UniProtKB/TrEMBL annotation:
Record's protein name: Stem-specific protein TSJT1-like
Top-rank taxon: Eukaryota
Source species: Heracleum sosnowskyi
PANTHER family, per the entry: ALUMINUM INDUCED PROTEIN WITH YGL AND LRDR MOTIFS, STEM-SPECIFIC PROTEIN TSJT1-LIKE
Domain DUF3700: 2-237
Annotated transmembrane regions: none
InterPro entries listed in its UniProt record: DUF3700, Ntn_hydrolases_N, TSJT1-like
Amino acid sequence: MLGIFNKDLVNAPKELNSPHAPAGGHPHRVVEKPKQIVPEECLKGFLSTHPNAFSLSFAKNAATLAFAPPPNPYPNNRLFSGVDDIYCTFLGSLNNLSSLNKQYGLSKCGNEAMFVIEAYRTLRDRGPYPAHQVLKDLEGSFGFVLYDTKAKTVFISLSADGGVNLFWGIASDGSVMISDNLDLIKASCAKSFAPFPTGCMYHSEGGLMSFEHPTNKLKAMPRVDSEGFMCGSNFKVDVYSKTKSMPRVGSEANWADSWGQEA
């Protein structure tokens, strides 16, 4: 899967940007900026290498989602669903999907992507629980990227067990890309990328936070590649730094406003 979001839509953490310099700033080393291709070329490459792939673009290319059905057999489930102008790509599986569908009043035949859309709508429309609590109720290995075309918001999350990988980065035009395909991210983002942090969630209005440890801030950890170049930072839970308490989201407060502080 591949998601491309305009910089005005997704404000990624500034630590994802790489200075394209060797670690330690060696004064005599010549640094060449890595070659990058524009995200549109990455999208074309993705579609051309997956014969059954498709893409959807929204609001004058402010957001693009591309998806390719998995070959059979495939170790991880891959799903794409759209309901009421909300679109979701889901990777992995939920062990407790049946009970979650029952809890949310969904059909027994509903898949994981459809559940995520319904859970998101419940949160967006001032549901009774904070976002981190909803995600903590998900059992299994999962990663998803959701785009709400009406609200123009992006919602991303990755399970804590490491069973699914996602990568995100900042392309040369400033747009934010996210994919499970590392080569796609490197092609457009060069060194300005990092693994999406496990056990975390991102909302375009609330920023990045840990849903496993919602009262702790996230700390950017500088990352260096095998050639000694600085890359986009990893984000880890800072056990010594606390955020504001996470309030329950009631009928008089939008859930995104109670998200917590950004990393």
